[in-house]
Amino acid sequence: MKTEIKQLLESVKNGIMTVDEALLQIKTKPFEDVGYAKVNLHRKARQGVAEVIYGAGKTATQMIGIIETMQRNGQNCILITRLSPTAADEIREKVSLRYFPEAHIGIIGEMPKPDGIGKIVIATGGTSDIPVAEEAALTAEVLGNEVVRLFDVGVAGLHRLLSHLDDIMNASVIIAIAGMEGALASVIGGLACLL
């Protein structure tokens, strides 16, 4: 459930705030207009997931403005996807940012502890699929999920995938990434259904 709204409702239930006070908090400032962007401040309350910055096409200065707006309004962990190394360097001059070049992802703040249900397995057919897999893995982790990475387990050497049957059997979600022929998705899907 949406944590912020649930906390507001609990506060009303426990007499800590009135219904009108809670309603005012929900209505107040759903976004902040910074000129070039309208930063969504209520996305987490409405959708369960906070705003993410899509870095492609934005300048470092624009992203810094969005980051500062998010931080000023209580967002502790910020994910920036499709972030170039040059923009990451510029942002680092103003904000503490961890940059993951392979995934083109920047993360500001502490990663949350996993609070999702179960594990997400991210499997790649080959080594060249790792950048896409890392983007998915880091995004899932920022969203509070536990991730198991299975890299280079393509079906050309099926024994590599079969050595991870426990991970496959215990996964709540499986993301299969395979470039050229894409056979991994069919095989891992078949294994997951059988197990």
Your description of this structure?
InterPro entries: P2CMN_synthase_LarB, PurE_dom. GO terms for molecular function: hydrolase activity. The chain is built from nine helices and nine strands. It is an alpha/beta fold and 195 residues long. The chain folds into two domains: 29-108, no CATH class; 119-194. The strands form three sheets. The chain has a four-stranded mixed β-sheet, sandwiched between helices. It has a three-stranded parallel β-sheet with strand order 8-7-9, sandwiched between helices. α4 packs across α5.
Order of helices and strands: HHEEHEHEHEEEHEHHEH
Largest sheet: 4 strands, mixed
Mean pLDDT: 89
Strand content: 15-25%
Radius of gyration: 20 Å
Number of domains: 2
Low-confidence stretches: none
Give the neighbour order of strands across the main sheet.
3-4-6-5
Helix-residue proportion: 40-55%
* Distance linking N and C termini: 30 Å
GO molecular function: hydrolase activity
Name the features.
P2CMN_synthase_LarB; 9 helices; 2 domains; flat; hydrolase activity; single chain; PurE_dom; 4-stranded mixed beta sheet; 3-stranded parallel beta sheet; 9 strands; 42% helix; alpha/beta; 195 residues
